Amino acid sequence: MYFFAHVFSGALIGLAFWYIIRDRRVLPLCIFGAVLPDLLDKPLALLFPGILGTNRTIGHSLLFFAGMVAAGMLLWHYRHILLGMAFACAVFSHQIFDSMWNLAGTWFFPLMGPFPVILIPDYVQHSLWLELSSPSELVFALASAVIILAWSPGIAGKRLSSLPPQGKSGVCMAAACLLGAMGAYLLFAGLNASPGSFFAPAYAPLTSVMAGCLALCGTIVLLSFWHLSCFQDR
Predict the structure, then answer these.
(1) DSSP letters of 13-45?
(2) pLDDT of 156
(3) 140: part of which helix (H) or strand (E)?
(4) Which residues of 130-165 are buried (b: 16+ CB within 10 A; e: fewer)?
(5) How do residues 98-133 score in pLDDT, each as one tens digit?
(6) Structure letter (DSSP) for residue 116
(7) pLDDT for position 233
(8) pTM over cut 0.70
């Protein structure tokens, strides 16, 4: 999946953990964890193209996830907080949504030898074009913004919470309808093994199914907008 799809998955994981631990730090932490593998691996691929010539290496390995779990367990042992485990779950979600089992040499590094080197000509332009040409990224970005603004205690969040009930419902309903329509479309396209879809032309069928399920889960969350709008008061 692409950047804003991972941002959205991190937001949903953060909300799930918030219901458990009631710590406001968990939402931004999980969003960061969900995009960390790309933030780590893509610059490394540009800096060391002959060694790490692919955008999925260290941060996309189970070894990296295991390190995050170990750190989370230490944080729980000494501080009795679950923020570290929430972060680890967000990192793992990135690997799952990227279908890392299809790149076993990377996922199980170093058990299967060094990272595979896959040189991509015009790497930056290639990656940017894939993301910019996917309308799904815009939808996930908009849905993520609604959740983040509803959560935020800052000026933007206060302005959103100050809207009348009809305004809140309208923002929620518009985002939920768009996200739900995209989710149903991606799920249908993936289950029918379509080579691509309008919302994400470059997605493989399985990725379309996962993106569709993610979008539909997000639709349910957005329809619970009253809960989101109350977060900043707690």
Answers:
(1) HHHHHHHHH--TTHHHHHHHHHHHHHHHHHHHH
(2) 46
(3) helix 135-151
(4) ebeebebbebbeebbbbbbbbbbeeeebeebbeeee
(5) 999 999 989 999 898 778 776 666 666 667 777 777
(6) P
(7) 45
(8) yes
